[in-house]
Design goal:
The protein is α/β, with parallel strands linked by helices. It has a domain at about 5-90 and about 225-235 and about 245-320: 3-Layer(aba) Sandwich (Rossmann fold). Helices cover about 35% and strands about 25% of the residues. The strands form two sheets. Strands 6-7-8-3-9-10-12-11 form an eight-stranded mixed β-sheet, with helices on both faces. It has a four-stranded antiparallel β-sheet with strand order 2-1-4-5, with helices on one face. α6 runs parallel beside α7 (about 185-205). It is globular and about 70 Å long. Bound molecules: adenosine-5'-triphosphate and iron/sulfur cluster (SF4). The site of iron/sulfur cluster has 13 residues, from α12.
Length: about 325
């Protein structure tokens, strides 16, 4: 079997606030194979964005990676210095941000924004090659060549998001992390941008981590699904199998809470509130809301184990 593109082991990312440490990502482990698209879902505050920022090594104080490994193609990202990490961003892993408007430079033409990242990585290109590459990138994200000479404010939200997609693939990285890439767009445009990302993923053989709330969209888009709750990984598996037969009670509730799969399936209706990550519950973090909890769940944290080939679960129902 080939090596996974990414192997995250026992990752811990905490935010040190006055009241203590917010355990936003706590002992999370998972692997991602080449060419696979994995969705990362969970209610608001479960640690998804923190996970994405940690992978990009873009956690800012008071946040800190306090333990674990993030091995991308043999390199532990946790151990790299800033300069080494800067070289890897874009060339080996890239992020499609949540809001394109905030990430694009409002006073720079699109062609320059597409080329700048490559020049920053010392890619040497003649003027002719630059024009050719910009046109190629625009074509890949279904934008017309005239966009090259435009400024961000001259583009619609969907077009701006396409530009950030083009930026992310400009150096053909192995891994793309997309943090709710279409959440600011209307539903029709969302689907179109998503289709473009899907097509590129297949064409370039990219591995993708897609972060989102929308289980309906995930069901149609990703190969594998990873479910986070209160900073911990609850379950990972093949998407269809997870929907068909969830093994973790939280995954089961998430799926049951969806009105109609095809509709915008934002989580709703799971009784109880998410716990404070400053002082998470002892034992299984989900025990305060779990309809299947029993004594052991309040005392002992379940191990994250491979319950079936390719299916990882943290629940005493599986291990006890
Ligand atoms: P959402 O779906 O709302 O984006 P999320 O699952 O991405 O949520 P995170 O944004 O990663 O969750 O947040 C995880 C936890 O870390 C939350 O409890 C949040 O309050 C906390 N957190 C995030 N950023 C900071 C920060 N800069 N300082 C302190 N706590 C933070
Ligand atoms: Fe529920 Fe216990 Fe499983 Fe946690 S370990 S999900 S509380 S049954």
């Amino acid at each position: 079997m080939s090596e996974p593109v990414l192997r995250v082991k026992n990752l811990k990312v905490y935010y040190y606030v006055e009241a203590g440490a917010v355990k936003a990502v706590d002992d999370v482990s998972f692997e991602l194979d080449f060419g696979v698209k994995m969705g990362l879902v969970g209610e608001s505050g479960s640690g998804k964005s923190t996970m994405a920022l940690a992978l990009m090594r873009m956690i800012k104080p008071p946040g800190k990676i306090v333990g674990g490994q993030m091995i991308l193609g043999g390199t532990d990202l946790v151990k790299l210095n800033e300069e080494q990490m800067r070289q890897l961003r874009l060339s080996r892993l890239a992020m499609i941000p949540q809001g394109a408007m905030n990430s694009l430079n409002p006073v720079m033409r699109i062609d320059k924004q597409l080329i700048d990242g490559m020049l920053d990585h010392n890619v040497i290109m003649s003027n002719e090659e630059r024009v050719k590459r910009v046109n190629e990138l625009l074509e890949m994200v279904d934008l017309p060549p005239k966009v090259a000479k435009m400024y961000p404010h001259e583009l619609s939200g969907g077009m701006q998001q396409r530009v950030t997609v083009a930026q992310s693939i400009s150096m053909e990285p192995d891994l793309i992390i997309a943090d709710e890439p279409t959440s600011a767009l209307d539903v029709v445009i969302q689907r179109q941008v998503m289709e473009t990302i899907n097509r590129l993923q297949q064409r370039l053989g990219l591995s993708v981590i897609l972060i989102g709330h929308d289980m309906g969209l995930m069901a149609q888009t990703v190969d594998r699904l990873a479910v986070m709750y209160a900073g911990r990984m609850m379950e990972i598996g093949e998407t269809r199998a997870m929907f068909h037969r969830p093994l973790h009670p939280y995954t089961e509730l998430l799926i049951k809470s969806l009105p109609v799969l095809e509709n915008k399936g934002v989580f709703s209706g799971i009784p109880g509130i998410t716990p404070s990550l400053l002082n998470p519950p002892a034992g299984c973090v989900f025990h305060t809301r779990c309809p299947k909890a029993w004594g052991l769940c309040e005392e002992t944290t379940p191990q994250f184990v491979e319950a079936e080939p390719g299916r990882w679960v943290a629940c005493h129902l599986i291990t006890a």
